[in-house]
User: Fold this.
Amino acid sequence: MNRLLTLLAIVSSALLAQPTFAQAIDDSNCLRHLGGGGFGDFECYERHTKMLIPDSTKVADSIKNSSHVNRETKLGILKYMKIQKNSSESCDLAINLAYPSKKERADRNHIEVYDVMAARCRYGLRKQQNEFLHDLSSIVDD
Assistant:
């Protein structure tokens, strides 16, 4: 009977034990692991923003080069791209508010929550831009 109880205890321990695996966080999944406003968040937003920019440019160029698009619409695409670029530059307002003088901003040597706020802002704008351009492209492709 003791042998049976011992075996039952071993089997139930093995079945109840939950394996713990560390998940590697990389470019493909870092957006699912944001939190804390630290360096990892900053790097994740920045890397994903940098991946969106060339794709958005490529899609915008493809729309402009389409034979179905007139001159006025091509100029509208150029204007939209410029406005989006200018908008993303305004994301540094958080840093500028926290550090009013250019000298203070230049003397910083670390990433902090204001940098993460700016990076998140840029990513959000660039992601929206990319999605909108792909939507426009689907109209041209139809």
